[in-house]
Amino acid sequence: MDKDDSFPPVATEPEDHGRPPPERQRVFMARRLGAVVAGILILVLLVLGIRGCLNARKERAFENYARDLSTLVQQSQQISEGFFARFSDPQNSSELRFETDIRADRSAADGVVSRAESLDPPGELSNAQDDVVEAFQLRAEGLGKVADQVGPALGDEDFNEAIEQMTVDMQEFLASDVLYARGREEINAVLQQEGIDEDVPASFFYPRVPGTEQPDLEWLDETAIQENLAAIAGNTAEPGLHDLAITSVLIDGVDVSPDTPATVTAGNPPEVEVTIANEGDTEETDVEIAVAVSGGDEPIDAEEMIPRIAPAESRTVTVPLEPAPATGSAVTIEVTLGTRLGEEDTADNEFSYEVTFE
User: Fold this and answer.
1) Rg of the Cα atoms in the chain
2) Count of the separate structural domains present in the chain
3) Which of 107, 181, 183, 303 has the most CB atoms less than 10 A away?
4) Maximum C-alpha span of the chain
């Protein structure tokens, strides 16, 4: 036989023209794996970057809150020091000047409350923020209540009750210190946990014994308060019947009533015309009239004096309001006539009016 047909032909694998050579395939897979690894690294870096930004933002929020609150604490401390310094040493201050200064303190304390309410604390500090705001509110309210008692405390009628109430009002300052201390403790604990290098300072509105944190009990002593008040307007009243009264108030020519809101075309500047009468039987000297405007862009305090007013006489003073209150919004205008030592009827010595300037 020419050929050996006893063995079948050996099968061979057909050539695959679509598959790249093994070396190129390995290179391709390595590149694909490198791209995947690079993508994962980029994703990790993005996550870390975002987390870092969030952490930095959170840290700034804690720092800004602590610094802003520390500024408010300083302002509140300044109000406290001024208020109690006047009480300790009136320096021949008149009753009206003393009361007006306290009401100015109240207005400044209200500003601290407003700024405290506008703080934006991180969520971890929300409860402590409530304590802080309430503490500042108690301080402002206490100042207002003390101012309300100055006139009665210097009068002959119910002065003991007024002085007793004043000592109660002083306790609101103590309560505010307790509330603030609780909020401060929580705030500083959270700041420490978060690794924030800030510390909110202590704040004592009620005076402390020098060198300690113990409350000075003088301001809860009715006798001590009465002695301090006695120095404001003298130790004794002039003999006779003392009775001054506000009989009319015109604002830029409009006769206003305490019970009815009024709209007034504002002058430049607006003027408050106050008429008072001496309804007693004693000549009065250095009679002070104060006008305070609140509820506008900024508080306004103005004052005029009548050198002398005889019994049964009426006198009129004009008090300009500068800077002029903003137009379009209602403001509260308080007109206060200085109470005379020994004056029993003081119901007509102070009135409040709601006015909108246009």
Assistant:
1) 38
2) 2
3) 183
4) 164
